[in-house]
Amino acid sequence: MSSDTDVSLSSYDEGQGSKLIRKAREAPFVPIGMAGFAAIVAYGLYKLKSRGNTKMSVHLIHMRVAAQGFVVGAMTLGMGYSMYQEFWAKPKP
């Protein structure tokens, strides 16, 4: 039994909280997208009682589209941010 594997054990020793913080620093728009999605879903559930004559299915479709739109927007901004960091913000050697 040889130990030829080059697996770094530092990632296994990392706790859940520190891993989440590290991932949020690497891609800051992911937690923003998740928070926006949760906020839109919470708002949709809050407004569910006062939807008026709107059918339930139409209300749910509108909320789904709004939540997906927010997440896609956050992903697009995150991609633009990472492209900016990689190509324009780096000092030229």
Globally, the shape reads: elongated
- Based on CA atoms alone, the radius of gyration comes out at 20 Å
Helix-strand category: mainly alpha
How would a crystallographer describe the biggest sheet?
Answer: none
Q: Flag low-confidence runs.
A: none
Percent of residues in beta strands?
under 5%
Helical percent range? over 70%
Mean pLDDT: 81
Give me the strand/helix succession. HHHH
**N-C termini distance:** 46 Å
Question: Can you count the beta strands?
Answer: 0
Provide a count of the helices: 4
User: What's the structural domain tally?
Assistant: 2
Domain HIG1: 1-93
Keywords: Membrane, Transmembrane, Transmembrane helix
Main location: mitochondrion
Protein name: HIG1 domain family member 1A, mitochondrial
